[in-house]
Write a structure and sequence with these properties.
The chain is of the alpha/beta class. It is globular. The protein binds 3-[(carboxymethyl)sulfanyl]pyridine-2-carboxylic acid and manganese (II) ion. Manganese (II) ion is lined by residues 227, 278.
Length: 599
C-alpha cells in the first residue's frame, strides 16, 4: 500500500471500487511529476502551449463553456439538520446527499486515472495548518493543486503522523450542469464534488476545504477560517504591521493584496508585503493577539482588469510558470484579456477567431494559477509556521452611495456587526438608483459552512479577558459623485487609508465619533498630491442620517432571518446604532461628521 495510514488506504480503495479507474497514481508533488502531467495534457490538447519566448512554461486551458465558475446553487452543506446549515446555505440530509452523488460516481473513472493528492493547507510545519487528500480524475486539477497547495510527499508524511485529514472526492463526470454537485459533509470532514472541472468546484483545497469545511472545523477548535487577504505594511521605521481584509468578489481584493504605494510613500520607505490574496486562517496566540496564516501556496486570480496600472505586481508574476484558464490569445500566442492593454486578441476564450459580436475575448471569470512566491511583493513571512500577528481587520464592499470611504468600529462587538452588515452591489450600473445590493457578511456568504447566526456568535467569542484583538474597519473605495464617477482614485492610493488605520492602531491618528463609527477628518488622511475637491472630500466622508437609518433598517431585516441563532449581543449592538441614528436625526445640531472626537 502506498501510505502508512490504513484509514487513507481504505478510503482510496473504497473510492476506487466505486469509480473503477484504469490506474491509480499517488502524487508525490515533484517537478518531474508536474512536467509529466503537463506533457500529457499538451498531447491531448487539455493544455495549449502559449508563446514560450515571452511566457516560458505558461499554458492555456479552455474549460467546457458550460463550466466556467463556481455554482452556488449546486453547492450544498449536508449537516444532520437544516438548522445547522442555516438560511445562508443550501442543505441536504447527509444520507440523501451521499446516495445522490455516489450514484453519479459509480463507474465514472473507467478508462481514466485516479490521482491521490495529499496536500497541506498552510506551511507544512505550522500548528495552524490542516491537511487533506483530494482524489480526482482530472490532470488539470492535479497541476493546479500543485501550484495552489503544499502537495505531495511532505503533506502525506504529516497526514500519516496526524492520522486525520479532510477527504475530498472529485470527478469531472459528464460536465452536465444538471448533474453537478459540490457537497460538503462537515461532520465527516468530507467533500464530494461531481460534474465540474473548474476552479472552486474542483480544486477542493480552496473554497471547499479552506473555507466551508475550514469554518466548521475552526468553530470546533477555536479559530477563524476567513475569506480574507493578508498584507504586511512596512513603514519608514521598518516596522511591519499586518492587516487582514474581507471583500466580496469584484472589489479589488487581489489588487489590494499586491498594492504598490504611491511614489511619495515609496520614497519615504513604505512597502506592502503580500502574505495572501484570498483566504486567512487566524488563531489567538499566547499573547492574546490573533496570528494568521495564508493556507494557500498560490493565487487563482481573475485575469480581466489585471494591468500595469491596476496591479503591476500581478502582471510581473504572470510572465512565466503560469496556467491560464479561459483567457484569449494574441496573434503571436500571448495570453490576453480585457483591460490588459491595447493589443487586439486573435482568438477568444473558446478558441474562435475573435469577433466582438461574440462578447468579451477573455471569459469574465478567466483565471491565472500561479505560485505565490512569484509575486514581487510576496512576503517570506507567508512561510512562518507561527503566522503573522494581525493588527487590523478590514471589511468592505462596492457601494456607489451611502457608505463613506472608511470608518472604524468602536470595539470588537461593533466590528463584528460591521462585518455582519456587509453588502455589495452585484452589477455595475451607470446610476446607483435600483442597483441590487447583496448582503454578504464577512464576504463569507458562499463559503460559511454552517449557520451564519452561530458564526457571528463564534466571532464574538474571541472577545475575552486578555485578548488583544485587532481593530476593525470598514472601507468603500467605490462611492460615486453626482456625475456618476468614482470619488476616490483607489489602487495604490488606498495606501493612504491603510496608513490612517495603522496610525489608529498605534494611537497616532485622530478620528471623529459618529453613530456608525469613527471617521477620519480630511486632515487625518495624507491626501498630498491627490487634488481632490472639497466637494469630493465632503461626499467621500458624508454620513447621511436618513440614508443610514434606511441602511440599518435593511440590516435589521436581514439579520432577523437568523432568528434564535442571532446572538443577543449583536442584536443589542444593532439597536444601539439605530438609537444613535434616531437621536442624530432628531437633534437640530450640526451634521453627523461634526460630532465629538473619538477616543
Ligand atoms: O469561479 C471560481 O471557481 C473561482 S471563485 C474564486 C477564486 C479565487 C478567489 N476567490 C474566488 C471567489 O469566488 O471568492
Ligand atoms: Mn475569493
Amino acid at each position: 500500500m502506498p501510505s502508512k495510514l490504513d484509514a487513507l488506504n481504505r478510503w482510496v480503495d473504497d473510492v476506487a471500487k466505486r469509480t473503477r479507474p484504469d490506474h491509480i497514481h499517488w502524487c508525490d508533488g515533484s517537478d518531474a511529476e508536474y512536467r509529466q502531467l503537463v506533457d500529457e495534457m499538451l498531447a491531448t490538447g487539455e493544455l495549449l502551449e502559449l508563446n514560450q519566448q515571452t511566457h516560458p512554461r505558461c499554458y492555456l486551458h479552455r474549460s467546457n463553456p458550460k463550466d466556467v465558475a463556481r455554482v452556488e446553487k449546486a453547492t450544498v452543506i449536508c449537516t444532520p439538520t437544516r438548522d445547522e446549515a442555516g438560511p445562508n446555505n443550501n442543505w441536504m440530509a447527509p444520507a440523501d446527499a451521499h446516495a445522490k452523488v455516489d450514484a453519479l460516481f459509480d463507474g465514472c473513472m473507467q478508462g481514466r486515472t485516479l490521482y491521490v493528492i495529499p496536500y497541506c493547507m498552510g506551511p507544512i510545519g505550522s500548528p495552524l495548518s490542516r491537511c487533506g487528500v483530494e482524489i480526482t480524475d482530472s490532470k488539470y486539477v492535479v497541476a493546479n493543486m500543485r501550484i495552489m497547495t503544499r502537495m505531495g510527499t511532505a503533506a502525506l508524511a504529516r497526514i500519516e503522523r496526524e492520522g486525520s485529514f479532510v477527504k475530498g472526492q472529485h470527478s469531472v463526470g459528464t460536465l452536465d450542469p444538471a448533474n453537478r454537485w459540490i457537497m460538503h459533509f462537515p461532520n465527516e470532514l468530507t467533500i464530494k464534488s461531481y460534474g465540474s472541472g473548474y476552479g472552486g468546484n474542483a480544486l477542493l483545497g480552496k473554497k471547499c476545504h479552506a473555507l466551508r469545511i475550514g469554518s466548521f472545523q475552526a468553530r470546533e477548535e477555536g479559530w477563524l477560517a476567513e475569506h480574507m487577504l493578508i498584507v504586511g505594511i512596512e513603514n519608514p521605521k521598518h516596522e511591519i504591521r499586518y492587516v487582514a481584509a474581507a471583500f466580496p468578489s469584484a472589489c479589488g481584493k487581489t489588487n489590494l493584496s499586491m498594492l504598490i504605494p504611491p511614489e511619495g510613500y515609496r520614497r519615504e520607505g513604505w512597502r506592502v508585503w503580500t502574505v495572501g490574496d484570498d483566504i486567512c486562517w487566524m488563531r489567538p496566540g499566547k499573547d492574546g493577539r490573533l496570528y494568521a496564516i495564508n493556507p494557500e501556496a498560490g493565487y487563482f486570480g481573475v485575469a480581466p482588469g489585471t494591468s500595469k496600472k491596476t496591479n503591476p505586481n500581478a502582471l510581473a508574476m504572470l510572465q512565466h510558470d503560469t496556467i491560464f484558464t479561459n483567457v484569449a490569445v494574441t496573434a503571436d500566442n500571448q495570453p490576453w484579456w480585457e483591460g490588459l492593454d491595447d493589443r487586439k486578441p486573435a482568438k477568444d476564450w473558446q478558441g474562435r477567431d475573435y469577433d466582438p459580436a461574440n462578447g468579451p475575448a477573455a471569459h469574465p471569470n478567466s483565471r491565472f494559477t500561479v505560485r505565490a512566491n512569484q509575486c514581487p511583493s510576496w512576503s517570506p513571512e507567508a512561510e512562518n509556521d507561527a503566522g503573522v500577528p494581525i493588527d487590523a481587520i478590514v471589511f468592505g464592499g462596492r457601494r456607489g452611495s451611502v457608505v463613506p470611504l472608511v470608518f472604524e468600529a468602536r470595539d470588537w462587538t461593533h466590528g463584528v456587526l460591521m462585518g455582519a452588515s456587509m453588502a455589495s452591489e452585484t452589477t455595475a450600473a451607470a446610476t446607483d438608483v435600483g442597483v441590487p445590493i447583496r448582503r454578504d457578511p464577512m464576504a463569507m456568504k458562499p463559503f460559511c459552512g454552517y449557520n451564519y447566526g452561530d458564526y457571528f456568535a463564534h466571532w464574538l467569542s474571541f472577545d475575552q479577558a486578555g485578548a488583544k484583538l485587532p481593530r476593525i474597519f470598514h472601507v468603500n473605495w467605490f462611492r460615486k459623485g453626482a456625475d456618476g464617477k468614482f470619488l476616490w482614485p483607489g489602487f495604490g492610493d488606498n495606501m493612504r487609508v491603510l496608513e490612517w488605520m495603522l496610525k489608529r492602531v498605534t494611537g497616532e491618528a485622530d478620528a471623529l465619533a459618529t453613530p456608525i463609527g469613527n471617521l477620519p477628518r480630511a486632515e487625518d488622511l495624507n491626501l498630498e498630491g491627490l487634488h481632490l475637491s472639497d466637494t469630493a472630500l465632503d461626499e467621500l466622508f458624508r454620513v447621511d442620517t436618513a440614508e443610514w437609518r434606511a441602511e440599518e433598517a435593511a440590516v435589521g431585516e436581514y439579520l432577523a432571518q437568523y432568528g434564535s441563532h442571532l446572538p443577543d449581543r449583536l442584536k443589542a449592538e444593532h439597536q444601539r446604532i439605530v438609537a444613535a441614528l434616531n437621536a442624530a436625526s432628531e437633534s437640530a445640531a450640526a451634521p453627523v461628521r461634526k460630532a465629538a472626537a473619538a477616543s
